[in-house]
Design goal:
By secondary structure, the protein is α+β, with helices and mostly antiparallel strands. Helix content is 23%, strand content 38%. The chain has helices spanning 26-36, 79-92; strands at residues 6-16, 20-21, 24-25, 43-46, 49-51, 57-59, 70-77, 97-105. Belongs to the UPF0166 family.
Length: 110
């Protein structure tokens, strides 16, 4: 089990719901990759509305169901572990954005 406390790195990956990696949803492939690599955890957040580099708005409020809503994957891990995985992420993500920032982790346990 990975113990994370103190200063860590928060990685956010911004992609679209319709993005794919080897015929499966990219966000699923990324979460599985993080699990296989022993990351402490990952969370996928589906946005209600957003736009990207092409300034096309995607919203769940349109009469038709949008099939490309914004998706954000959040991971908190040691910086070295994230940096080591960036080349693989670069190969998987064709369009989107990754942000990295310092995060102070306060872990609560039962």
């Amino acid at each position: 089990m990975t113990k994370l406390e103190g200063e860590q790195t928060l990685m956010r990956i911004f992609i679209g719901e319709s993005d794919r990696w080897q015929r499966r949803p990219l966000y699923e492939a990324l979460v599985e990759l993080f699990r296989q690599e022993g990351f402490a955890g990952a969370t996928v957040l589906k946005g209600a509305m957003g736009f990207g580099a092409r300034s096309v708005t995607h919203s769940d409020k349109l009469l038709r169901l949008s099939n490309d809503l914004p998706v954000v994957i959040e991971v908190v891990e040691r910086q070295e572990k994230i940096e080591a995985l960036l080349p693989r992420l670069d190969a998987m993500i064709e369009g989107g954005m990754i942000t990295l920032e310092k995060a102070r982790v306060i872990r609560y346990r039962k």
